[in-house]
Amino acid sequence: MAGSLSLLLRRLYLSLYNWTLFIGWSQVLYLAVKTLRESGPEQVYNAVERPLQFAQSAAFLEILHGLVGLVRSPITATLPQISSRLFLVWGILWSFPETQSHVLVSSLVISWSITEIIRYSFYGMKETLGFAPSWLQWLRYSTFMLLYPIGITSEVGLIYLAMPHIKNSEKYCIRMPNKWNFSFDYICAAIVALGFYVPGIPHMYGYMLGQRKKILSKSKAE
Known about the structure:
By secondary structure, the chain is mainly α. It has helices at residues 2-38, 44-58, 60-68, 75-94, 103-129, 134-140, 144-169, 186-221.
């Protein structure tokens, strides 16, 4: 009885979580496309800022989901992707407004939102109904081949574009002397973040290709 109740609560929570984020990312995509058509790429960030911050920040819970065993996704795949996105949303776009009007924001937001709309609807249906249609499963494990390169290129490009502003502003920097005898240069953090893309891209892409082969092969066998 306790096991059945625990399973039910898990499914209810994950259903609510996935459908909430599906709605959040749908709003991001709608606002991004609408603004891009009506006002151009310079205004896209202003239109999507709040829903983007909400939807991406809420994804931090997925790290906790993996840690406590609520989902089977490996933390080695979840942590790098969510960390890099949070760095982009808060550490680059929000912190350095000079980057907000660049066209790369549009490609970033649209690629992220399409990816997440597909992903959250897929898992939402699996948790709510116990299955997802085959076409949605195919989209979940195929569209990343196009959308990931677009998103990653946009991420790297925006970090690079922010670096002169990071250097000139000295925002988030800690200079010596101070009582902690500690210094921190935010541009070094940005360089380190860029460096993580070197091993991170092939790791994440390889993981998704492996998942695609495993899931779609299993689906064909059935």
